[in-house]
Amino acid sequence: xxxxxxxxxxxxxxxxxxxxxxxxxxxxxxxxxxxxxxxxxxxxxxxxxxxxxxxxxxxxxxxxxxxxxxxxxxxxxxxxxxxxxxxxxxxxxxxxxxxxxxxxxxxxxxxxxxxxxxxxxxxxxxxxxxxxxxxxxxxxxxxxxxxxxxxxxxxxxxxxxxxxxxxxxxxxxxxxxxxxxxxxxxxxxxxxxxxxxxxxxxxxx
Length: 205
Hints:
Layout (H helix, E strand, L loop, with lengths): L2 H7 L3 E3 L6 E8 L3 H9 L1 H7 L5 E8 L6 E8 L5 E12 L3 E8 L5 E11 L2 E9 L3 H11 L2 H11 L5 H22 L10 H4 L6
Antiparallel strand pairs: 1-2, 2-8, 3-4, 4-5, 5-6, 6-7, 7-8
């Protein structure tokens, strides 16, 4: 399938029901659910893709557990702009879904739930629902998001999630973690004796 067809198939879809407090989004990826989940829930990986590329991402805190907090800044290249985001994790059901509250600066944080759906053949769909304090706040947020330049940045930077060079690095790190864990369990075990099903557990592109 050509690049244009793949991009159309994996387009970001946003639904904003009139008069409601919610925004629904969904997008498909040509990668397995375990990998998509890990990239979304690992603070180290978040540095690679969070926010528009005109900002650097600083992850101050990313405690991925129920009740754990997260705090991330988008900082302009010249350091003059800082956009602080924050929230708390709940309802974590590995590799199915999680909820976090999503707050910006002094605005009240509202819940966002992400669901990870296995489509088979190494493909995954993410579905999210964001809930705002009221319809007016929701509409103001969407108005900013719906700006063509902003939406283009969002779509482009979501694609950085699965930059191939980063995936290869990620897969190597995963294998190294598996081998290290095996050696810790049994100091006499050698790297060559790690079961193939374990050492190949990280997805590669």
